[in-house]
């Protein structure tokens, strides 16, 4: 009896071969590195000192292999819940102010998270961003030490926020996406997880320092901003953003109050009252991962932690902050710490 003919096989492309290699490396890695439960109750893995969701960890591998930066690219980086949504709106509106009228602006019909891609949720194949006009805007929550070398040569806007406010915002946000099979996350648990550095992309302090130190070395490449400063002087910050992104405001624009109009359009009061930010879901990349738009704009206040944290909790977080940032030159707004 003759044997059955074998079916023809499709040659594996180099891209597929690279992806299969990444998958093998990733699968081996997560079996060997430390893991713990994060704020959502799901496993996070410690990769080079930072705790990442397994899907986001794999994305980091993909970015190192496939993402191709351009010299004019600009990245917004931050720890989660540091004011990223607001900065996205400000950066997008400032850079693209020639494209829209303020009465019928893009942001009046779309959530700020849709303005430019969050790279952390990319999957294979990585989206082709070559059609994006320069300068391209991207966002990420990855600490600087985990970024592909091609990205670190580009410009970055980094936004940080007082850690106690970050914690409270994370606690509220993650509680919305915690498995219903798990008990609600208590504030005591959230404080403990945060202080141990086990929150997503944490530890908080090492994340902030990775960009702070780089901003001191490359001030022309990294605009380091504090949420509290943006809240107090938004028009000053918008002018800084415009200059940093290579599109400073003209005298005519200043006279026409374009800066003030951008600040008003992107204010918490304006954005939170738009219907688009009260309903719908924002999905990321090709993944079926979505976040309800209403969860992006909770309060936007400085010092909201005072409504939640006990004196003991405050002292614990402040003590860690003082120890981790000691000698770095980085301090947070005294009014937010008091």
For the structure shown, list the relevant keywords.
single chain, 338 residues, alpha/beta, Rossmann fold, four-stranded parallel β-sheet, 14 helices, 11% strand
Describe the structure.
It is a single chain. The strands form three sheets. A four-stranded parallel beta sheet has the order 5-4-6-7, sandwiched between helices. Strands 1-2-3 form a three-stranded antiparallel beta sheet. The chain is an alpha/beta fold and 338 residues long. The longest helix has 19 residues, at 14-32. Helix 1 (14-32) packs antiparallel against helix 2 and helix 9 packs across helix 11 (258-265). It has helices spanning 14-32, 54-66, 84-95, 149-152, 163-175, 187-195, 204-217, 227-232, 234-244, 251-255, 258-265, 268-272, 311-325, 334-337, and strands at residues 35-37, 43-47, 50-52, 74-78, 137-140, 155-160, 222-226, 281-283, 290-292. Mean pLDDT is 89; it is low at 1-10. It has one domain (68-337): P-loop containing nucleotide triphosphate hydrolases (Rossmann fold, 3-Layer(aba) Sandwich), CATH 3.40.50.300.
